[in-house]
Amino acid sequence: MTDPTQAGLRESATFDRATIAGIQRAAETGVYDIRGWGAKRAVPHFDDLLLLGASMSRYPLEGYRERCDTDVVLGDRHARNPLHLDIPVTIAGMSFGALSAQAKEALGRGATEVGTSTTTGDGGMTPEERGQSKNLVYQYLPSRYGMNPDDLRSADAIEIVLGQGAKPGGGGMLLGQKISDRVAGMRTLPAGIDQRSACRHPDWTGPDDLTIKILELREITDWQKPIYIKVGATRTYYDVKLAVAAGADVVVVDGMQGGTAATQEVFIEHVGIPTLAAIPQAVQALAELGLHRKVQLIVSGGIRTGADVAKAMALGADAVAIGTAALIALGDNHPRYADEYAKIGSAPGYYDDYQDGRDPAGITTQDPELSARLDPVEGGRRVANYLRVLTLEAQTLARACGKAHLRNLEPEDLVALTIEAAAMARVPLAGTSWIPGQGF
Amino acid sequence: MVALNAGITQELKIDLATSSIRELNAELHAPTARRYEVHNPRGAEAIAVGLRDEIDVEIHGPAGYYCAGMNMHADIVVHGNVGTGVAENMMSGSVRVRGDASQSAGATAHGGLLVIEGSASMRCGISMKGVDIVVGGNVGPMSAFMAQAGRLVVCGDAGEGLGDSIYEARLYVRGSVASLGSDCVEKQMRDEHVAELTELLAAAGMDHDVSQFRRFGSARRLYHFAAHNSAAY
C-alpha cells in the first residue's frame, strides 16, 4: 500500500501511529520506553514570535559596518572571578558517560574557539574536557558522581543542578550498555549496570538548606567561582525567586524541549513547560527582586538558530545554552549514517536512542569503535562554525532592530503569531496591542 | 588569631567569636601552621571546609552544617555535636566527632575515615563512595541510601530502610535493624569481613566484640531494569 489515505483510510488523531506503536511496544516488553532527545510534541516556541525590524519609528544599524556586540558577563553578583564570554551562546551540561570522551572534547574545543563556555555533566570532569575548555562550568548534581574538590576548584563556574527541562523532578539515568570501565570508575559503580541517579541532593532539602550549601561551596572555592542554579521549567517564577534568595549568581532555566541522554518517554513529553512560557516568568521574578541583569538568566531548551537566540534575549535572557543543537552540529542525525540508522530501527532526523550506546555518529556512545568515528578537532571546528552562525544570525536581527548589543533586544521588539504564544511570551499578538492575560 | 608556641609546634588558635568563617577557611586553605585550635564555633556553618593539607584541626564546641566538607588530607576533630552533612564528600584524611551528628553525615564521601562517637541522624552515609564511617551509637532511617562503596559500621542500632538501593558498600551493624531498604540483604560474615571490621573498629578507637555484628550489602537484584521489579522502585 503506498498511501493509506489515498485508499480512503482514516488515521485516528487520538490513536495515531506513534501511539499505537507505543502500546504495542509496551505490551511486548513490559517496560516503559526510555530514550534521549527532548520533547517532540509541538509546543508554542520561538517560531511563534517575530521581531519588529526598524523602519520609520526605529533606527536600524548598518548590517556590515556598525558594531553589534555580543559579550556577556556571568556571575558578577558575588563571585570574585565572573565569566566574561565573547558570545551569549553556551554549551549546556552533558555528561561524559552520556557522551563519548571525544564528543566532550570536541564541545570544549568548539566553545573555546569562539570564546564561550561548556559544561560538565552527571559523571564528573574529564581531563580531555578540562584541557580543551577555556571556560568550563562544573555541574554539582544530586548523584555527585566523580565529585572532587580539586575539580571544583579548577572549574570556572559551578552549576548546582536541581533539575532539567526534559525531566523536572527526575534523576539521571544511564543504562548498562554505556557504563564502560572508565565511566564506571569515574562514578564508583560496577561496570555494566543500569545506573539510576538520585533526583534529590543528598545533603540538603529546600531553599534554606541550599543557601548554606552555596555558602559551603563559596568557602571551599574562596568565593572565586560564580555559582549557577539550574532548574527545569515548571513553577519558574517561584523557583527563580527561591534560587536568587538562596544566593545564586546565575539562574539557568531549561524548558521542556531541553534534551536528555536517557529518560522515560512519558516523562519527557508530559512534565514541564515550554521554554517560551518559562522566560517571562523568570524575568518577572528577577525584575521584582530588582536583580534582572544583575543575577544573569541563561535559557535553554530548543535553541536552534540565531533567531531563537535573539528572541530569547529579547524576552530578557542574558545568554542561552544549547545541547541537542550542539550534538547535531557534531554530526548527530546526519544523513551519511542513514544505512546504519536503518539497521538499528531509526533514520536521520528521527534518531533519539541516545540511551543504548549504538550511536553511529560516535557521539552518544562509549563503544570504542563508534567513538573513534568522531574526530575531536574536526568536531570542535563544526561546533565553532555553528556557534559563529548562531551569533551572526542574532547580530543580523539585532541590528535590524537598531541594537548595538544583543542584550539591548527587548520584549518591545517582539510580536506573537498565535494567541498561545502571545499569552506565554507576554508580547502582543501581531498587528494588535493585545497581550492575553493582561487586560482587554 | 593567636599563635600558640609559635616557632616551636606551629600551632594557631582561632577564635570564631572574633574571627569570621571566611578568615578561618582562608587560613586553613593556605596554612601557616601545622595544627589549629578553633574556639567558639557556636554552631557556625561551613567550618573547616575544603581543606587540602596535612594539618590537624581541633574544633572546641558545636559545629553547624557541612563541617569538614570535602576534606582532603586533614585530620579534624570536633569536640561537640555537628550539623547536617559533616565531612560530606570527604576524599581523604579523617574527621572525628566527639558528640552526635545530624543528617547526611559523610554524604557522598569518597575516602578517609569519619568517626562519630555519638549517634548519627537519618541518611548517614547516603550515596557514600568509598569512605569508611564508624558510628559509636545509632544511625537514623535511610542510612546508606544508594551507598556505592566504602564501609559503614554502626555500633548501636540502625533505623528503617537501611541500605536502600545499595550498590557495593558494606554495612556492619551491632544492634538491631528496624528494617532493610530495597535490595539490601543480610550477608554472611566471612573471615575477611571479621578482619576488616576489626581493623575499622581499631582505627576508630572503639572496643567491641566483632562477633556481635551482622553484615549487610546489596542483593544486586536492582542493578538492571526489569518489569517484575516495579514494586521495588
Automatic annotation (TrEMBL), chain A:
Matches recorded under InterPro entries: Aldolase_TIM, GltB, GltB_archl_type, Glu_synthdom
Region described as Disordered: spans on this chain: 109-133
UniProt superkingdom: Bacteria
Glutamate synthase domain mapped to chain residues: 76-331, 360-403
Pfam families, per database record: Glu_synthase (PF01645)
Keyword vocabulary terms for this entry: Oxidoreductase
Gene3D superfamilies noted in UniProt: Aldolase class I (3.20.20.70)
GO biological-process terms attached to the record: glutamate biosynthetic process
CDD domains attached to this UniProt entry: GltS_FMN (cd02808)
GO MF term set: glutamate synthase activity
Compositionally skewed regions (Low complexity) per UniProt: 110-120
The family this protein is said to belong to: Belongs to the glutamate synthase family.
Matching PANTHER family: ARCHAEAL-TYPE GLUTAMATE SYNTHASE [NADPH]
Protein name, per record: FMN-binding glutamate synthase family protein
Gene source species: Pseudonocardia sulfidoxydans NBRC 16205
From TrEMBL, chain B:
GO molecular function: oxidoreductase activity
CDD domains tied to this protein: GXGXG
Name listed for the protein in its UniProt record: Protein glxC
Species name: Pseudonocardia sulfidoxydans NBRC 16205
Phylogenetic classification of the source organism: Bacteria, Bacillati, Actinomycetota, Actinomycetes, Pseudonocardiales
